[in-house]
Design goal:
Family: Belongs to the NDUFAF6 family.
Shape: globular
Low-confidence stretches: 87-164
Mean pLDDT: 80
Main location: membrane
Number of helices: 18
CATH superfamily of the largest domain: Farnesyl Diphosphate Synthase
InterPro entries: Isoprenoid_synthase_dom_sf, MMgT, Squ/phyt_synthse
CATH architecture of the largest domain: Orthogonal Bundle
CATH topology of the largest domain: Farnesyl Diphosphate Synthase
Subunit structure: Component of the ER membrane protein complex (EMC).
Strand order of the largest sheet: 1-2
Radius of gyration: 36 Å
Membrane topology: Multi-pass membrane protein
Number of domains: 3
Oligomer: single chain
Largest sheet: 2 strands, antiparallel
Structural class: mainly alpha
């Protein structure tokens, strides 16, 4: 076989190993984002790696050729007297070693640089005794790099860089306008709700809701039948960005409009609550059905419940409250649970058109349903009964939230009113159309939401 063929084998095997490394990194990232244990690599990646290694070794051994023995240094085992006398014979006018002075002196020799290099390589431990070349003073023609302006001594440990992000007034204004347009176009209900809030906290609320919209859009782009992992990396990008903005990471703060808005208008927002919005989306990657109604309730608390708490926290700072009352957190979690359950009913048909069924598996088992039966409408009566059960669960949670009304401070009730009004409307609308999730009319939004919020805020209710 020709050497060219061996070169091709070596190159192809190297490329194959790089592909294996990329595939392994993709697989590891997917498991990390979905919080699954990393036990081993797929069998195809392992097989490809082994074959590529064998091919690389085979090709490289033929390209390199036979092994060549390295000639030993003739002066390695010789004494100073032998090396010095031999050196004087080879160059009598070169470097002369004085045994009494234990140093070398220089004499004119046309090959002194070559022989000096030979001695330095043969006896590096005594090179400091060569007087003409052992001067430690810098040469006038050699620059002293230690005295250059801006020179820094190496640090013994890694220091955390500054998190300060210089934001101009124009950049902050552009980021704020971007958040307003994002919420207005993608989350009309919350856009109207923010307009009923105090003006001093609206910028923070628009930034937080725009952040939530960004997360929702990322998840909507992830398909369970697609190998594209860009959406999952985008969720991790936002998790890293939140860590950088609120001081939990040394990563740089991204120059992204929503990230800039969070820096400018929501510097005191709760990082655990923002992180909860991301983690909840990461756990539901792949659009797998909820295992139980309890998992669906937990998802509602981690998303809508966290969002309500962020709103209440912003209103509490405006009202000069030191901390968020526990009753507000409980009421927010109850409302978040109710919204998570009833919103699954409203989003049933749009998700079904994408081939996705998220109904809880335990309820489907009780009603003798499977995702295939739900998708093909083989038993619509059973699906309607399942939806009726979900409506009962949502009604129980919103009733539990309203029982906490006396314990919730009046200024913070504005944070609970929007979600409460939306849940009440969705429950009434679903019951009105016989709990049929295949009915398009369940997608309608409340046309009087703004007026309801104005009345509730005036009366101090939610």
């Amino acid at each position: 076989m020709s050497k060219t063929l061996y070169n091709v084998i070596t190159s192809v095997s190297l490329l194959s190993l790089l592909h294996c490394a990329y595939s392994a990194a993709q697989h590891r990232s997917y498991l990390r984002l979905t919080e699954q244990p990393f036990v081993t690599l797929p069998a195809d990646v392992l097989a490809q790696t082994l074959i590529s290694l064998v091919a690389l070794i085979y090709g490289a051994s033929h390209v390199a050729g036979a092994f060549q023995h390295i000639k030993s240094d003739p002066n390695r085992d010789r004494s100073w007297d032998e090396a010095g006398s031999s050196y004087r014979r080879s160059c009598p006018d070169g470097l002369f070693f004085s045994r009494q002075l234990n140093t070398f002196t220089e004499r004119p020799c046309p090959v002194k640089l070559l022989n000096r290099s030979l001695l330095c390589s043969s006896f590096p431990h005594l090179f400091y005794s060569i007087s003409p070349y052992s001067n430690t003073q810098p040469s006038p023609s050699s620059p002293d790099f230690s005295n250059l302006p801006g020179a820094r001594k190496p640090k013994s440990r890694l220091l955390k860089p500054s998190r300060v992000l210089e934001i101009t007034k124009e950049q902050a204004k552009e980021a704020f306008n971007h958040c307003i347009e994002t919420v207005r176009a993608r989350d009309r209900d919350n856009y109207q709700a923010i307009l009923t809030m105090p003006k001093s906290c609206r910028p923070e609320l628009f930034a937080v809701h725009a952040f939530n919209v960004e997360l929702a859009l990322v998840r909507d782009k992830i398909s369970p039948r697609s190998a594209d992992t860009a959406g999952m990396y985008r969720l991790q990008f936002w998790r890293d960005a939140v860590g950088a903005i609120y001081g939990d990471s040394v990563a740089p703060i991204p120059r992204q409009p929503v990230a800039i808005a969070l820096c400018s208008f929501a510097p005191n927002a709760s990082m655990p609550l923002l992180d909860s919005l991301i983690i909840a989306r990461q756990k539901t990657i792949g659009d797998r059905p909820f295992r139980s109604i309890a998992d669906l309730e937990s998802y509602g608390i981690a998303t809508t419940g966290a969002l309500i708490c962020l709103q209440a926290d912003a209103l509490a700072r405006v009202s000069a409250m030191e901390a968020l009352p526990e009753a507000v957190t409980k009421a927010a979690n109850e409302l978040g649970t109710a919204y998570g359950v009833i919103n699954l009913v409203r989003s049933f048909l749009p998700l079904l058109q994408k081939g996705v069924v998220l109904l809880p598996e335990d309820l489907m088992t009780i009603h003798n349903l499977t995702p295939d039966k739900v998708y093909n409408r083989k038993n619509p009566e059973a699906v309607m009964q399942l939806v009726k059960d979900l409506v009962k669960v949502a009604s129980a949670h919103i009733a539990a939230s309203k029982q906490l009304l006396p314990s919730v401070p009046r200024p913070l009730r504005k944070a609970l009113a929007p979600t409460s009004s939306v849940v009440e409307y969705l429950i009434r609308n679903t019951s009105k159309f016989n709990h049929d999730p295949y009915d398009n009319r369940l997608q309608r939004r409340d046309p009087f939401l703004m007026w309801k919020l104005v009345v509730k805020n005036a009366l101090g209710r939610y």
